[in-house]
Amino acid sequence: MDAAPDLFGRRPYWAHRFGIAPFLPTSRAEMDELGWDSCDVLIVTGDAYVDHPSFGMALVGRLLEAHGFRVAIASQPDWNSVDALREFGRPNVMFGVTGGNMDSMVNRYTSDRKVRSDDAYTPGGVAGLRPDRSVLVYAQRCREAFPDVPIVIGGIEASLRRIAHYDYWSDRVRRSILLDSKADILVYGNAERAIVELAHRLAAGENVSDVRDVRGTAFLGRGLPEGWAEIDSRTIDTPGPIDPRPDPYAAEAAARHPPGLVALRRPSLAGITQPRARTVVRVPAYDDVVRDPVLYAHASRLLHLEANPGNARALVQAHGDRDVWLNPPPIPLTTAEMDRVYELPYARVPHPRYAGAKIPAYEMIRFSVTIQRGCFGGCSFCSITEHEGRIIQSRSEDSIIREVERIRDSVPGFTGVISDLGGPTANMYRLACKSREIESACRRPSCVYPDVCSNLGTDHGPLVRLYRRARAVPGVKKVLVASGVRYDLAVRSPEYVEELARHHTGGYLKIAPEHVAEGPLRAMMKPGIATYERFKVLFDRYSKQAGKQQYLIPYFIAAHPGTRDEDMVELALWLKRNGFRPDQVQAFLPSPMASATAMYHSGKSPLARVTRDAADVAVTRSARVRRLHKAFLRYHDANNWPMLRAALHRMGRDDLIGDGPEQLIPRWQPAGTGNRPEGQRHKPRPGIALTQHTGLPPRSGGGRSRRRP
């Protein structure tokens, strides 16, 4: 993988002479107080402004400030007119538009398409202060306010809509968000490098329409630039009978295909002499993927195959007479760069304009520390990999400890408990491929499925040392781990499980087996339940040795692609045998660009070569069946028993109806129950998302993929 220029290696723009703002200004009056006649960059976001590295607008704003730009923030502006944006005056360099830390549609609607009653990223948790499809609306208001200012869109909402994508809320395939937003350029993934380069080049007078070579960006164009070669994706991964793919781990692969010429399938590049850096893969056009779900699944697969920064080629997809061009993903940040990004001068509290109002998402992460970003798990339902990438980027131990000390010394309300040392997955800190050559050539969607790759380093020693050092910081009473633990990795390090159970669990540890049946687990790319049970044995043993009564709280998903009614029966029986009675349950939510979403839409799995005669994936689309699958997770709720009895009778499983210990539900029905739809009494948690990333670019700290950050 090519090295990237130092993120902080550029000469600061002239405005660095203004120094560091206590808070980035959120109004014209605040700009005047700082002595600014104008701003260089105006970030428009759907979230309340919290000056903390877990919030995208703060991370990007402080990063650009460190590069000498004057950055203002339009936080949750009134989207019904342009007045809220014109108040700031014309930005000298660009607009940066993001929906916020969460996709605005996931933020607003449940997996049953019902409106949520609150918004975790708004003061007081008040709902309705951001529009649906926020990036589209904000970008259009920016264009109306100042038509000549370049508009850069980014964050989770834009990142996962950079190509034609299935939209669950409208139940159709939508165009790339670039066209609908009318933005000039899109930054995706961990976009620090891209946003810094764009800011400097635009500030130097370069026209945004000429910026076409920045990794991690997408833009609109026509035709193929001179000196480029184009490959039809269907010659790489034909939607029909196909040949086996060569083993990317063959020892001679690197010598046979030096960097720049590695192919998925050698015959497809027989006449190509250009290096990979000058080769673009054309995926089926928007009109084709709308018409043909198999081509949609094929395009999804190609997008995921071309996701490794070490070998990815540019992708192009026609939308009418224009092409959406996706440059290869950004080069991951080095440890030194990660340290500087997370040690910028954040105030670590919400902006004073909120007058102390509680912002629920901030309350969850105010005492947490991001130690790494990225995830190589590749779970098909999760968008972390598509957004942050598979390569783990870790901070140094010293930087993390300095942040712990800053929390202790400066964050109001600190009582001595660090709520989380984590990231998308708690225990991938400093884990990486043993060979950089193999890592740069690899196209596997997951490093841990169907089993942990032999080339993956799984040493948890650095993480254990970090935990021990963090809990030894004077003034720190407890360091908890609230992020999701990848238990198939943890079982390879009993020392880590012991450290976790003895010192970093507050009575309950949330963990995500997701299912117990083979079909849905295969579609999810999750390990079998036996791996969870091995972890549980270790966790229980070390908890008992520590004299603690602690419990694992498993998460499960209903109605995921690959799930049949029989699979939910198997899961319900497992829950009952193990004494679990879930209170809050979740159904699969098809987020844009996830592999499982392609399964949901097309009925085909993009995890293997997509062929027209490949077996269909079981898909649960109807609201009635989705309610049934959720009801199986809440088998103990008497209100669900009539529905479950009818389903079990239909399935020929009357043997599971009765009062015996091996039966799932009783024959009798308590008075006053069974008359309401399943789940009516249980208000959904606010802010549940398939991803937990920031705006422009992403954050990676604290929690499992479907939790609020």
Q: Please, could you describe this protein's structure?
A:
The protein is α/β, with parallel strands linked by helices. It has 3 domains: 14-215, Response regulator (Rossmann fold, 3-Layer(aba) Sandwich); 223-320, no CATH class; 340-656, Alpha-Beta Horseshoe (pyruvate-formate lyase- activating enzyme), CATH 3.80.30. It is built from 26 helices and 21 strands. The strands form 6 sheets. Strands 2-1-3-4-7-8-12-11-10-9 form a 10-stranded mixed β-sheet, with helices on both faces. Helix 23 (565-577) packs parallel to helix 25 (623-633).
What can be said about this structure in brief?
This protein is α/β, with parallel strands linked by helices and about 700 residues long. The chain has 3 domains: about 15-215, Response regulator (Rossmann fold, 3-Layer(aba) Sandwich); about 225-320, no CATH class; about 340-655, tm_1862 like domain (pyruvate-formate lyase- activating enzyme, Alpha-Beta Horseshoe), CATH 3.80.30.20.
